[in-house]
Amino acid sequence: MRKSSTPYLFKCYIWFVNTIASGPISREAIDEKWARASVNDYQTDAIPESTFHRWRNTVEELFDIEILCNAQGEYYIENADQFRRADMRGRVLNLLSFNNMLKDCQDLRKQIIFEPVAPGEEYLPAIIEAMRDKHVLQVSYQNFEQAEPCTHSVESYCLKMSRQRWYLIAYSRDRKGIRHFALDRVVCIQPTQDPYTIPEDFDAEEYFKNVCGVTILKDKPEEIIVSVSEPQVEYIRTLPLHHSQKEIETHEKYSVFSYYLIPNEEFMRELRACGVYLVVRSPDWIVQEFRADNKLLYNIYKEISQE
Questions:
Q1: Model confidence pTM above 0.70
Q2: What is the pLDDT of residues 113-150, one digit of tens each?
Q3: How far apart are CA 68 and CA 288, in angstroms?
Q4: Does residue 4 or residue 68 have the better pLDDT?
Q5: pLDDT tens, 213-228?
Q6: Contact status, residue 97 vs residue 22, Cβ threshold 8 Å
Q7: What is the 3-state secondary structure (H, E, C) of the chain?
Q8: Does 88 have pLDDT greater than 50?
Q9: φ, ψ for residue 235 (rounded to 5)?
Q10: Which of 57, 177, 242, 272 has the fewest CB atoms nearer than 10 Å to its CB?
Q11: What would the CATH number be for the domain defined by 222-306?
Q12: What is the pLDDT of residue 100?
C-alpha cells in the first residue's frame, strides 16, 4: 500500500488520534509508540514535526475534536471518553482502532474470536473522507438480484452498521432519491472532486428513529406489545431490540415490553429469534401472522415425524 494513499493515511490518523485519546501523553512518548507501531511503514523512530502537526490538524477536522497541549507539554483530547461514545465518529474510531491494536498484538489474534462480519470495511476511509469533504462518490454496486453491477453518483449522508454489515446511506443522483448501499455488495468506489451539500433537514438519527435495522418503510409507527418469559427477559433488558423499548409490566416469570416503531422485516426477525420465550400480544395482525407461522412450522414437523 502506498504511503500517500488514502487508506494508509487514514490508518495513520486512526493510530494518531487513538494514541492521544489515551493521554495526556508527551511528544516523546508518542514517538516511542510510533517506533513500535505496525502502521509505521515509514520505519522511522519519530514522527517529523511537520507531519505531526499536519496529522493533528487533519484528525481534528476529521473527527470534530480539539487536541490540546497542557503546561507539561502533554497532548490530550478533552472529554475523550464522551467523544468515543457520543456518535458514529466515535464508534467508527473504536472499531478501526481495535483493528490497528490487533495488528500490534499478533500473539493475541487466536484468543479473540469475532462473529463473521461482511466485507466492505476497506471502503470506510474513502467514504468518511468524502463525507468530511462533501465530495460525490462514484459507487459501483451489485445487489443480490443483479447480474451486473451498476454505477451510482452518490452524496454520502451517513454510515450505519446493522447485523454485521456496514451500510452507506446516500442520495443517488442517478435514481433521484436516498438509497442504502451494503458495503459488502460494493464492487469499487471512486472519489471525485464534485461537491454536494447535505439537506439541512436530514438527521441520521431521526431518519432511522422508527425502524429496526436499515429498512425504511412508508408505514406509520405503531405500538407493539410482547410478553417475554425467563430466561430471555434479562437478554432483552440488557440489549433492547429497539431504543423505544419499555418494560411496562414485571412479573415473577415473565415481563411485558412495548415498542413504538414501524415493524419492518428486520424487527420481525428479532421477535422470531426469541422463539417460544416471546409471545406477541398486539397488534392483532402481527399476532395472526405469528400464529400462521407457528401453524406452518407445526405441520412441517408433523410431516417430518411421520416419515
A1: no
A2: 656 667 888 888 789 889 888 999 999 999 888 888 99
A3: 59
A4: 68
A5: 999 988 899 999 999 9
A6: no
A7: CCCCCHHHHHHHHHHHHHHHHCCCEEHHHHHHHHHHCCCCCCCCCCCCHHHHHHHHHHHHHHHCCCEEECCCCEEEECCHHHHHHHCHHHHHHHHHHHHHHHHHCHHHHHHCCCCCCCCCHHHHHHHHHHHHHCEEEEEEECCCCCCCCEEEEEEEEEEEEECCEEEEEEEECCCCEEEEEEHHHEEEEEEEEEECCCCCCCCHHHHCCCCCCCCCCCCCCEEEEEEEECCHHHHHHHCCCCCCCEEEEECCCEEEEEEEECCCHHHHHHHHHCHHHEEEEECHHHHHHHHHHHHHHHHHHHHHHHC
A8: no
A9: -65, -40
A10: 177
A11: 3.30.70
A12: 52
Instruction: Report cis status (omega within 30 of 0) of the bond before 24.
Output: yes
Amino acid at 153: S
Domain 121-204: give its CATH code. Answer: 2.30.30.520
Q: Give the whole-angstrom CA distance, residue 192 versus residue 138.
A: 7
> What cell numbers appear for 126 in the block?
474513502
> What are the residues whose beta carbons fall under 8 Å from the beta carbon of 91, sequence distance 6 or more?
161
Q: Domain locations in the chain?
A: 6-111, 121-204, 222-306
